[in-house]
Amino acid sequence: MFKRILLKLSGESLQGKQGYGIDEQRLAEYAEQVKAIAQRGVQIGIVIGGGNIFRGLSGAKRGFDRVKGDQMGMLATVINALALQSALEAIGQPVRLLTAIRMEPIGDYYSPDKAKRLLDKGNVVILAAGTSAPYFTTDTGSSLRALEIRADVMLKGTRVDGIYTADPEKDPTATKFDEITYDEVISRGLKVMDLTATAMAKENGLPIYVFNMDVPGNLEKVINGEKIGTLVKP
């Protein structure tokens, strides 16, 4: 069993069936899944995207200044982080929110040492506001934070059950990988994460497990070692 994980959650998944914003049922399901493994002693850092509210790159395509757009996206991740923090607190799970941009009292300012101390004390730690710098996605932020807190693995919770030869939502003939190397991800041009995030994980030997977080109980299955997703390895 992993001792410490970095869980990357999709902002889009938080919108559930409503197509925008935050679906309360999906949020509650995520909180219950996180609490279930925290109670088993797994230390959990969480990075959550903001695409259900605002995505900087798409904003830039609509005429926003890219830097301002990315900053808006960072703030969107904080909104999602606050929602998840509230959901975890509501079910009695100790949780702390750290932000990469100073915004006390919303959350404490992030540092790797602070995050590790909080994890050691049994807190789930939500790491919000991306890297604090524009031009970096939350995928890259996830790779960076996973390495900084010395996570054993990054678990990438998505709405599909792993990595396929093509987008399974668009191509019914796509086949799933049980395992794949970083080099193969890059050479095949698979959209697992952006290239910066993938290169950072590859260079530092960080394994990534991609799975469907939207199915209740799947996070615990991953922790139990059940092969329900795709392992990306060096």
Order of helices and strands: EHHEHHEEHEHEEEEHHEHE
Strand order, biggest sheet? 4-3-5-2-1-6-10-11-9
Our estimate of the beta-strand percent is 15-25%
The biggest sheet amounts to: 9 strands, mixed
CA-atom Rg in angstroms: 17 Å
CATH architecture, by name, is 3-Layer(aba) Sandwich
How many beta-strand runs?
11
CATH fold annotation:
Carbamate kinase
Describe the structure.
The chain is an alpha/beta fold and 234 residues long. The protein has one domain (4-233): 3-Layer(aba) Sandwich (Carbamate kinase), CATH 3.40.1160. Helices cover 39% and strands 20% of the residues. The protein contains nine helices and eleven strands. It has helices spanning 11-14, 24-38, 56-61, 66-90, 112-120, 138-148, 182-188, 195-203, 218-223; strands at 4-9, 43-48, 95-99, 108-109, 124-128, 153-158, 163-164, 176-177, 179-181, 208-212, 230-233. The strands form two sheets. Strands 4-3-5-2-1-6-10-11-9 form a nine-stranded mixed beta sheet, sandwiched between helices. Helix 2 packs across helix 4 (66-90) and helix 6 (138-148) runs parallel beside helix 8 (195-203). The radius of gyration is 17 Å and the shape is globular. The protein starts with a strand and ends with a strand.
